[in-house]
Amino acid sequence: MGEWKKFIAGGVLVLGAVLAMVIYADWNQAVQVISMGVNYIRYVGAPAGTIATEVAASSRQSTPARRNSPSPANGADAGDKDWPSYNKTLTSNRFSTLDQITAANAANLKVLCTYDTGQYTGFTSGLLKIGDSLIFTTEFDIFSINPNDCTLNWRVHEDYQPATPQGVSRGAAYLDGALFRGAQDGRVLAYDFKTGERLWATSIADPKKGESAPAAPIAWNGLVFIGNAGGDIKGVKGRMYALDAKTGKIVWELYLVPKAPGDVERGPQGKSTLDNSTWERPPGSPISGGGTWTSYTLDPESGLLYVPGGNPGPDFGADMRKGGNLYTGSVVVLDAKTGNYRTHYKLVPKDWHDWDVSGAPALIKTAAGKNLMVVAPKDGHLYGFDLSTQAMLYREPMTKVENADVEFSAGQPVHFCPGSIGGAEWNGPAYDPQTNLVMIGEVQWCTTVTLQTKEQMQAAKAGQPWSGEASLNPFNVWGKQDPFGDWAGWVYAVDADSGQWRWRARTNYPIQSGMTPTAGGVVFFGDMGGNFYALDAFDGHKLWGKKIGGAVGGGVITYLAGQSQRVAVSTGLTEILWPTEITTAKVSILGVD
Questions:
Q1: Closest-CA residue to 267 (of 357, 188, 342)
Q2: Cα–Cα distance for residue pair 140/562, rounded to 1 Å
Q3: How many domains is the chain built from?
Q4: Distance separating alpha carbons of residues 468 and 192, to the nearest angstrom
């Protein structure tokens, strides 16, 4: 299709959105279609994917030593046939001991089959593989397909009014024959694994206030763990929940920012020392923020739950909430059985860039025997913490960092990197025990913010987006992003003990997908241009790469189907904030001859 035809097609989509808004009065649907039309035009002439790898000078003389077998402490199991949780293990290491696909044969990778959902949606779902089923979700649907040939086992559609126009779902959890997912109307839903029959539904959030539950839950010991999103909405407070896996009853609730008199209590409250002392606000300005929307990490040995906490609100208006704004910008550690607060790791001391801690941290045991938590927020850094002392061992930049300390003032534009949708967001780091390398994908895309006055921020209505950005353009609510194409992606492979990078790869499209290293010495990931890559885990050189669909923003997993190793990837992310190819959400399965 020529460029003029694409412009015409984009115009038709915009007109269709206006008609939908007028006829159906469905603002969410109208915004989604309008954004599709705009992004269709912005994507005209998008270049082919490119990737270039650099090996650190200190690593050029020696290749990281291969370890004979993955450490059990890092979650590998004997068969390793499945991918049963969002980040494979509850500890979120994402490493697979499968080794049929190697550096020697990865050049033979090809797409074996594809399942097309037929939906234009913000497809960021993680993927699960359990037995003869591959599980994933979209905003309104949950799917079970055959993990070998992509044929449909079952599909369940839910009808509801979503809380916001951002139609996303990060995936499902599995436990004891049941599947669990959050929904954009604030419910948590349970289904029979074999048939898709609905088992129960529990509300944990109020969509009328802008609250939703897009995160991928995790499940353990009869409990399902999930929190609510919406911390960018005025008056919305992030909370964390444990639900009984059999009945859906709320076992405990914990507010991730200070709870005030009159705030709804949906279940027994976990114990916390959190108070208002780190939230100095003008009169009538509510504490807002701390939502969660990706997934979580759990240490089965200690029974501790690790919760990544989102930004405070208003996002860019730091003077509206003076102080440290606990527990936003933190990893909050809870007793998984009771919800009681245990400790927290404050990563973003004072956030006025929308630099959430959103991706789940990984709990790893390094080659030197250290038990670490590694985590990558949107601030563009990789952090390593010693779990025995809680000491921060390293904080290293993984993408472009610019004007990070420049304060915002009303009416004065500030350009900063990573931008408000830069850094690392939906998917956290992976750990390869064979190389002792932590691997993380990053976005290099900068943002310009012009701050509103305090009076303008105070005048915002409850239940509305509350960023503090002065622009009237609705596409710039979270700041004005740099022009389309003035962006990049990074993969960094970092020594887990020292924090020093061994190799890094730069792509011409941002990287938001999951990273999946394997015992075959291959790491898999995709970019927002729809390009899928296999790199050598030891030095990062490209083994295979091809555009296989739309933007890759969700799950990348590997598993056995029969006796053959397969790789599955979710493609086709289409949503408001990202100018990506307009195409339907799909899951593709790859393998080698």
A1: 188
A2: 31
A3: 1
A4: 44
What is the number of other CB atoms lying within 10 angstroms of the CB of residue 136?
Answer: 28
**Residue numbers of the domain that contains 38:** 1-45
Task: Give 36-75 pLDDT, tens digit per residue.
Answer: 667 767 677 789 999 999 999 887 655 555 554 454 444 4
What ranges make up the beta strands (E) of 488-555? 488-495, 501-507, 516-517, 522-526, 531-536, 542-547
CA distances from 524 to 43, 106, 118, 416, 531 (A): 25, 10, 25, 30, 11
SS3 3: helix
- Residues whose CB is less than 8 angstroms from the CB of residue 85 and which lie 6 or more positions away in sequence, other chains included: 128, 173, 174, 218, 219
Is 517 domain-assigned?
no
| Residue 47: Cβ within 10 Å count | 9
> Tokens for 65?
């030593």
Residue whose C-alpha is closest to residue 380's, from 414, 351, 345? 351
Which tokens go with 398? 């993984």
Whether residue 20 lies inside any domain: the answer is yes
- Mapping DSSP to helix (H, G, I), strand (E, B) and coil, where does residue 350 land? coil
Residues with Cβ within 8 Å of residue 420, at least 6 apart in sequence = 315, 353, 354, 355, 378, 447, 449, 478, 479, 481
Q: What does DSSP say about strands 371-375 and 362-365: parallel, antiparallel, or unpaired?
A: antiparallel
Question: Residue 38 domain-assigned?
Answer: yes
Round to whole Å and give the CA distance between 554 and 405: 31
> Quick check: helix, strand or coil at residue 489?
strand
Tell me the C-alpha distance between 502 and 523, whole Å: 14
- 591 phi/psi in degrees, rounded to 5: -160, 180
Provide the whole-model pTM: 0.94
Classify residue 15: in a domain, yes or no. Answer: yes
Token representation of residue 390: 């809680």
> 168-169 and 122-123: which strand pairing?
parallel
C-alpha to C-alpha distance for 36 and 38, rounded to whole angstroms: 6
Under-50 pLDDT residues of the chain: 1-25, 27, 68-69, 71-78
Report the distance separating Cα 571 and Cα 16, nearest Å.
25
3-state secondary structure of 543: strand
Q: Which residue in 237, 244, 324 sits closest to 277, CA to CA?
A: 324
